[in-house]
Structures are given as C-alpha cells and as structure tokens.
C-alpha cells in the first residue's frame, strides 16, 4: 500500500515537471532539468551541483554536461518564472484572504566568500539575531512568494527570487536601456508584474523597510499601464520617525483654490514636478498614540494564531513629501507594545489590516527552509574573467573595476555566470514549491509512511523537510515502479556507464 501511495506522488511530480517542456528549446536540456529538480528534492548533502551527481548516482563523466546545463541558452529564468506562475495559478492550491491572492515579499542576504563571483558585494545585516555578523560579503536577493494551502496550514510558495544588488553593470551590458533602480523599487515592480500575470488584484505584504516613495511610485506606474487599476493592495509598516499630514478641511481647500487662481509673478512651476496639494496640519505619526489615546477602541484579534485583546485606532493621512499619497494608518496598543500598520486600501477594516499583516512572517519561514532544507543558495559558480573582489575596497571601487571590463568574451562569461546563479536559485524555487504542493496534496500518505519515523506523530500538514526525506527514501520506487515515466527515464539514462547496470541495481534492489 505504501508503494502505491509513493508511486502516486512521483507521478504527480512527473506531471508538473512535464509542463515546463515549452520553456526549453532543446530536448536534452529539458532532460537535464528533470534530473536537476529531482536531485534538489532528494539530495542528502548540500555541496553544490556535485550533490545531485552523488544522490542520483549520475555517471561522473557527465558532470561537465551538468555544469553546461546551467550556462545553457536553451532556457531563461524569466520563461521559467512565467510558466511557474501559470502552473501555480491553475493548481487550485492558492490560499485567498478576503477573496484576494496574497503575495509576500522580502529581501534575503546570503554570505559568499568567493572573490570572482558576479554580484558579490559588502552587505550590512539588519537582523537582530546576535549570531549574525553586522557586515558580510555576499549576495542580496529579493523574493516574491504566494500564499498556498488551507485553513490547517499555509506555505509561502516562491515565485521569483532574483539578485537585486551588485549586478547593475552586468544588466547594463545586456540591455543598453537598463536604468538602475533600488532593491525596494525592483521588488515592488516584480510583485506588480506577478499580479498582472495572475490577472487579479492581489494583496502585497511587505516589511517596514519597503514603505518608501519609490515603492509607491512603482505601484502607481504599474497602475497607469493597467488602465488605472492598482495591481496590488499594499500592507506594510512605517518607520517610527515618519511624519504625515492630516487631510485638509473644506476651508483650507477653498483657500488653496483661491490662491491658485491668483496671478503670480516669476517663473511658472515645472509641469513634471509634483504640485503640493492642500494639506492639513503636519504631525509625527507616533505622537498620535498620545494625542488620540481616548479614541482607541477595544478589539479581539487573531495574531499569529492566538486571540489577543488589543486597542485600535484608525485614521487616513497624507504621506510623502513629494508624493502626497493618502494612506490608511492603523495604531495598535497591545500589552504596552505600540505597533503601527499602513495600507493603500483606504476603506479596509483596521482589525483586518493587522490580521492580514501577520501572514507576512510566512516568508521568513520559507527562507529558513530554503536555506536549511533545500540549500537553495548552495551554488558555486564563478569565472576567472570577473575582477577579483577585495574586502577592503569600497563599493564604488569594485563597480569601477567591473565597468573597466571591455572584452566581449569577458562580458559574455560574466553574464553567463550571473544567469547560472539566478537559474540555480530559480530551479531551487521550483523544487521547493513542488515539495510544498506535495505536502498539501499528500499529507496523509506522507504522515503514514512507515519508513519515515518521527518521535512525535504529526497528523497535520507535514513540513518541507519531512516530505523531502520521504521522497529520498522513495527513490527506489521511482526506478522500480515508475520506470516508464519520463522523469525516471531521464535519470536512468544518465546513470549508464561501464558498470551502469550496477548503478541502477543499487537503486532498484530491495532493502534486506
């Protein structure tokens, strides 16, 4: 019975992977894609690409071909991402909050000691974890995930994870019209692109780092291209030192209109510069906790799965010195802790704003599993044509060295290595998403698998690591009972060597 259950899971994985065939211009490259995803799901060590060779018992002579696969031009990260979004949209696993698809975004930094790896730079870590150093050198990624699952458990399923810093010069080589943009703007723009691909208005949950004028401008630009409809509803937190303006009263608006009609001497204002609208009194946002203390109301909210009694106050204010965007601010006083939330939905219930924001932490759980269970940042791609990184050099010095690269062969090598890095991470996102979907769809089969012992019996949705271990134990089933699946054929055909039959027999033999 257990064999039939695990066979069903492998068939489901095979069917999902076959949908990516249109993303590859060559059949051999697609075959390697099947091998890579299976290897990432089942590998037991995280030593880069070689772990796939060891786990699946691939012929070692094919290691070079596997490396070439990551540098291949037969696929693109953008094509894989678009197809992945389409698959998730049609999967029926998306968890909706108030009828809306929920996107979660954040940045993640990964230490890399390589000196000739594209995108490596000196980074500051804002984490309050005392085990993390304040300064590292490595890669800064921006990720967008979508909430999937049901009432029992939800996962943040990764849709996009791309390098956001240290690669502006490389992107400029590929596209002469590329305009440098910040990490915040790029992440929000990618979220808007995903929302448009889903063809729905989505919730976008972001950390307080992302409430900036460039972020709101990116949403407004996407809305202008979308016929004026905002692709996302932003829910985030402002910083404690922000200021805002009250909405003006009728008299203030009338006075401003009268002043605008009067002719003035001097040069007329530039048309492209935002004109300052009528504003009310300026206020420090955190001061409203004391100024509006009597207007707070009691409420019971579900915060991180627990019911809490809090005090709430809600007000719409105008924010942004050059943007002057109206936003809804929600003030929460919880056991003496003062928290502040903000959303672009001006009519959303304040209690709901707080409850929805609590789902943002799902992406932090994803990052932990992505690093520890999937080793999604375990790439080692580098090139000798990349200028060596010097930890004592400034960012400007390193960028100047990169801009000095003029030979086309050097640029092509650096670009290819950069795409290999993003491709490795994109493959890991697909592998992690497949594991999460298997956890949701086959929870009973995985929890009841007698070959996977756990000290504490789990009757709910299994975690990603539990599912990955079960699939690793079920590899012999893939070769014995699912030999006709394209997934199994792709792997077994690359196990062939002088003693290839012995390699297959090692996987196909039953345990003693």
Q: Which key phrases capture this entry?
A:
42% helix; single chain; alpha+beta; 2 domains; eleven-stranded mixed beta sheet; 512 residues
Your description of this structure?
This protein is about 40% helix and about 20% strand. It has about 500 residues and is of the alpha+beta class. The chain has two domains: about 1-75 and about 445-510, no CATH class; about 75-245 and about 340-425 and about 435-440. Strands 1, 2, 3, 4, 5, 6, 7, 10, 11, 12 and 13 form an eleven-stranded mixed β-sheet that branches. Strands 8-9 form a two-stranded antiparallel ribbon. α5 runs parallel beside α14 and α7 (about 185-200) runs parallel beside α8 (about 215-225).
Give the helices and strands, then pairings.
Layout: H1 2-18, H2 27-42, H3 50-56, H4 63-70, H5 77-89, E1 96-97, E2 100-111, E3 121-124, E4 135-149, E5 154-163, H6 168-174, H7 183-198, E6 202-205, H8 213-225, E7 232-236, E8 243-245, H9 250-261, E9 282-284, H10 288-291, E10 297-303, E11 306-319, E12 325-334, E13 337-343, H11 350-357, H12 362-372, H13 395-403, H14 408-441, H15 443-447, H16 464-473, H17 475-480, H18 486-493, H19 500-508
Parallel strand pairs: 2-6, 6-7
Antiparallel strand pairs: 1-2, 2-4, 3-4, 4-5, 7-13, 8-9, 10-11, 11-12, 12-13
Helix pairs in contact: 2-3, 2-14, 2-18, 5-14, 6-14, 7-8
